[in-house]
Amino acid sequence: MQFQIVDAFTDQLFGGNPAGIVLLPDGADFPEDEIMRKTAAELRYSETAFVKQLDANRFQTRYFTPAAEVELCGHATIGAFHALRSMGLVKAGSTCLNETLSGLLEVAVGEDTVLMDMAEPRLFESIEGAAELDELYRIMGLPAAGQGVVLGKPGLSLLPRKVSTGLIDIMMPVKNEQALEEIQPDFPALKELSRRYSVVGVHAFTVNAADGRIHARNFAPLYDIDEEAATGTSNGALTCYLYDYGLGAPNTVHTIIQGEKMKRPSQISTQLVLKGGAPFVKVGGPAVTLARGEISL
After folding, report:
1. pLDDT tens digit sequence for 179-236
2. What is the pLDDT of residues 85-130, one digit of tens each?
3. If phi over 0 gives left and psi between -120 and 50 gives alpha, with beta otherwise, what is residue 214?
4. Measured in whole angstroms, how far is the alpha carbon of residue 242 from the centre of its chain?
5. 275: which residues sit within 8 A by CB, 6+ positions away?
6. pTM value?
7. Neighbours of 148 (CB within 10 A)
8. Closest CA to 24 of 56, 58, 57, 60
9. Residue 131: left (phi > 0), alpha (psi -120 to 50), or beta?
10. Distances (CA, A) of 42 to 21, 71, 72, 262, 296
11. Are the beta carbons of 216 and 266 closer than 8 angstroms?
12. How far is 264 from 87, CA to CA, in rounded Å?
């Protein structure tokens, strides 16, 4: 099987978020689940995508962390279709269909970028009780008091909330970039909290950064990912979350900065569009290939 290691959401090697991409040979079915999980663990990236071509522009993709299969992974999808383009299996300017456990999603393949649909947004309950807020922020190494205030929006204070555009994460607002930098999770406690809330992890962010852009950090120890440099699904969920608060207009392209603490700066582009009055999110960015080769499965 051919494979690539791709840095997604960056145009520079060793930036962005790396993913393993494994392309199944023509006519081959997916390996056993445990083999794919072990392959992801052997490659040691947060996610590895296994891609099966069904037709000229139709593919089925399954995503594995070192611990388990997940329904969708944004950066591994960007990496997968970058790899397919580089191998001549899809052409720049084409729109592909990608079958995932989160549904059938469109992927627009450009000359330099890949833009993908997220799954239908779902907004779940907010975390608003004093004890629950204290627990969440304490586990993340921060005080709950003073977090979530939005600069330029008097009286608007954001609350943590479970949101999904493919995977459920807790969107956790913090007051500024210094607070974002200071996050030091208690990982065993965060793993247990994620299990209890039935989420992949916590996506911490600030919307009052000095440069006017959104900055974020993502933590998912339940899936053996202490911190991730770029998460498409989480930033898609964040875009929907902000829109629900009245922050961000339809069709506006947001740039979310992630991975700075990990020395792997990433830029994730997101766009919320309305279809029949309902919000849907697109996520994308560039990618670069670090390595190509053969993998024996």
Report:
1. 999 999 999 999 999 999 999 999 999 986 566 689 999 999 999 999 999 999 999 9
2. 999 999 999 999 999 999 999 999 999 999 999 999 999 999 999 9
3. beta
4. 16
5. none
6. 0.86
7. 18
8. 60
9. alpha
10. 13, 20, 20, 21, 12
11. no
12. 26
H/E segment holding residue 235:
helix 232-244
User: For tokens 């997101």, what's the residue?
Assistant: 270
CB atoms within 10 A of CB 131: 8
Could you give the angle at the alpha carbon of 251 between the alpha carbons of 163 and 71, nearest 5°? 35
- Separation of CA 289 from chain center: 19
Contact 258, 216 (CB under 8 A): yes
Confidence at residue 14, expressed as pLDDT on a 0 to 100 scale? 93
Q: Quick one: 14 exposed, middle or buried, by C-beta within 10 A (0-12, 13-18, 19+)?
A: exposed
Chain-centroid distance, C-alpha 72: 9
Number of Cβ within 10 Å of residue 253's Cβ equals 12
- The pLDDT value recorded for residue 297 is 81
Give the angle subtended at the CA of 294 by the CAs of 288 and 297, to the nearest 5°: 120
The two three-digit tokens of residue 258, written as one number: 């992630």
Bridge partners of 123, per DSSP, are: 163
Give the pLDDT confidence score for residue 155 in this predicted structure.
73
How confident is the prediction for the chain on average, in pLDDT?
94
What lies within 8 Å, CB to CB, of 155 at 6+ separation is none
Q: 275, 115 in Cβ contact below 8 A?
A: no
Domains of the chain: 2-119+285-294 (3.10.310.10), 122-278 (3.10.310.10)
Of the pLDDT bands very low, low, confident and very high (cuts 50, 70, 90), residue 148 is: confident
Element (H, E) at 48: strand 48-55
Give the DSSP H or E segment for 278: strand 278-285
Phi and psi for 51 in degrees, rounded to 5? -115, 125
- The four Cα atoms 121, 220, 213, 158 give a dihedral, to 10 degrees, of 60
